[in-house]
Every structure is written in C-alpha cells, then in structure tokens.
Fold:
Amino acid sequence: MLIVQKFGGTSVGDLERIQNVANRVSRSVKEGNDVVVVVSAMSGETNKLVGYAEHFSKNPSVQEMDMLLSAGERVTASLLSIALQEMGYDATAMTGRKAGIVTDLHHTKARIEKIDPITMQEAIKKGQIVVVAGFQGVNGDGDVTTLGRGGSDLSAVAIAGALHADLCEIYTDVSGIYTTDPRIEPKAKKLAKISYDEMLELASLGAKVLQNRSVEMAKKLNVNLVTRTSFSDEEGTLITKEENIMEAPLVSGIALDRNQARISLMGVKDRPGIASDIFNKLADAEVNVDMIIQNKAHDSTTNIDFTVPVGDLQDAKKVVNGFVEDGEINDDSYNEDICKVSVVGVGMRSHTGVAARAFSTMANNNININMIATSEIKVSMVIDEKYAELAVRGLHDTYELDK
Ligand code: ADP
Ligand code: ASP
Ligand code: MG
Structure:
C-alpha cells in the first residue's frame, strides 16, 4: 500500500515526540508499505512566528509572512528525516516546492492549483521515505506560499490525491472525529465513520480537527481519509462517502466557532443594488461573509447584520467605512463577543423538528439567539460567547449524542 501519514503540531511537539513519529513511520514501512509523511510545525511554533512578525509591524507584508511561517514545517520535516536516517532508513525531506505543490498567488491562504508529483514518485521508486513540509507551496512567481491555518491537512490530502495513495492518515492529539470537541464535552463519543459532507460542515463551522479545505479536496479526489491519534493504536474515524455509512444518525455532531464577529449596519440606504454593492466590495477584499440578516427599519432605510471571521474584521471595517463616508450607511457597530454553535447531520434531510429542538435547548438554558441560519444538513445559531460551552453541552444532551 502507498500511505500518506500526516502528523499535526502536538504529534511533533518536542524531540521525543518526533522520535515517536519516526518509530510509527518505521512500523508502517516494516509492514511493507510505501510511506509519504507530511508534517506540521511543532505545536505553538507558527503562532510564535506570527508573534515575532507582530513585534515589528501591525501589518507585515504577506509575502514575508509566508516565507517566515513556512519555516516551522521545514524544521520538523528535516528533523524527522534525520531521525529516520539515524534508524537506518533512506529518508528524504522536501519543501512544498520540491514536492511539486504549485499554488495561486494568494499569500497566507493560497489554493493548490496543481501538484507535479514526479520528484516524490522517483524517490518512492528508489525506496525512500519522503518527508514533506506541510502547509506550503510555491506560486507562479516562485515565491513560497502558505495554505491557511491548519493547512498541513490540505497538503496531506492533496498529495494523497496526486499520488493515488491507498490511504491518507491524519494523526492528531485526539483519537478521531467526535460528536463534539471532547475538550468541551467529555461525554462526546468517537464516530467510527462520518460522511464527507457532514465532516465538511463540521470543519467549516469550527471543528478544527480537520481543515475544511482538506475535507473538500478529499471528497473531490475521493481520498480515503482516516483521523486517528499518534499516541496510541486506537482505531480512528473514517471519512467516507455517504453511501458507505449504513445507518446515518439524525445528528452527527455539534460544532463551535468562537472565531466569529458580528457586523451591524444601521440606516442603510434602501435602493436596488445596495446589498450587491456592499457584499461585492467585501468579496473583493477577501472578506468571508457568513450569515446575513436584513430588516426594514421604521424610516426608509434598512438594517443589515452579518458575521465574518474575526481575522477578516479589519478588512471588513475598511469596506464599511467607504459606504459610511458616501452617506449610504448611517451607523455601524462591531461585536467580537459572539460565537456560532451548529448542529450537523444528514438525517435532517428526512426528519422534521431538528431546528425546533435546537431552539428549545437555547430557551431552556436561557440563551438568547441572535442569528439563525439553516441548510439541508445544518442549523447554526449565533449567541453570546459566554454561553458557548453551555450551548454545546445542552445540544449534545438534546440529541442524545452520548448514547
Ligand atoms: P493538529 O495540530 O494535529 O492539526 P488540531 O489542534 O488542529 O490538531 O485539531 C485537533 C483538535 O480539534 C482536538 O484537540 C480537539 O480539541 C479539536 N476538535 C474540535 N472539534 C472536534 C471534534 N468534533 N472531534 C475531535 N476533535 C475536535
Ligand atoms: N503550522 C500551521 C498552523 O499552525 C499548519 C498546520 O499545523 O497544519 O496553522
Ligand atoms: Mg490542525
């Protein structure tokens, strides 16, 4: 078998753990597999580098940021390769560029455009263990790019797709995908399987156990994806096609996203095209808009509320200010003390009342719902951040996910 194994930050968090990873890779090789390893930076390392840059500038150039942040993954890839060589293996460490990962020009959240796997394939053919620095690629200008936070997951899935690997294993600090973040609800249960679509919703709605773009790519390329822990041999969770799951539960999981901010625009001029103008400008500024609510005010204006990731708030403010200056918006306010809790499950397609039960759970816990959004397989609610954990545990109970 050809297996891609990705080890996250905690799994390579110190030198002993890197040795532990080397031992695990060695076991897979001894079982007769070809192994390509993808590594993250040591845990905390990427944040540390961000902090270093912020010491010098509030707004460092994205090109320099990418060169800086990609360094963390190079450290672990080289150290792991050295550890494997010391154990007698022919290992070779590669940057994203050498692994053939070509991206678009969007620094700090680049998209993979293609992978030219020939260098990796030649190394595998020679019997080498390929160790790739995750989270990075090279753009058409020859500059290093990074793939957005958590992007090593995407590196692993994309490489598995390009190499037609039999399996892509994501090793992390929990033993699989749980019904909710086990750090918030200790009663959370590990799922044996979950569909790509449900996992994509959970990841997009805040479950950072897998980066959402990696799940999207896994679905597109039909990659056999397993999430498991690097600290034991416990079985993980298979992320797979919906038809491979015999009995889909009504609700599969609860996700929490603390990283959201709410923007309220008051006294917005009520004219055709205003929403189009505002949201197109936001899109041009790469602001990721999520929930949107529009209400008519008493006068001839409207109010528009929407949510964005906290990281996009400054860019959004700039856009909004332009409309305020032009007199098209009277007043704007911003609230970062909110969060989004979501209930996800493909069973919602064929059952009614799931949303109503979610709202009752909030009511019973005296939590006010600020915004609501639904899709075929999810119900999301924006609430005050201080109720985040209460809401997650309440919903987990309501749908009896611990059973
Ligand atoms: P890595 O550094 O290995 O990439 P991450 O920290 O990115 O690991 O992701 C693992 C974390 O995701 C877990 O420690 C857990 O707290 C969190 N998490 C959130 N939601 C879930 C979930 N539904 N199932 C499992 N883990 C989850
Ligand atoms: N080191 C990067 C991050 O912290 C990428 C990753 O770990 O997947 O976001
Ligand atoms: Mg991660």
Notes: The pocket of magnesium ion (ligand 3) is lined by residues 8, 150, 153, 208 (CB under 6 Å). Residues 2-173 form a domain with the Carbamate kinase fold (CATH 3.40.1160.10). The CA atoms of residues 78 and 93 lie 6 Å apart.
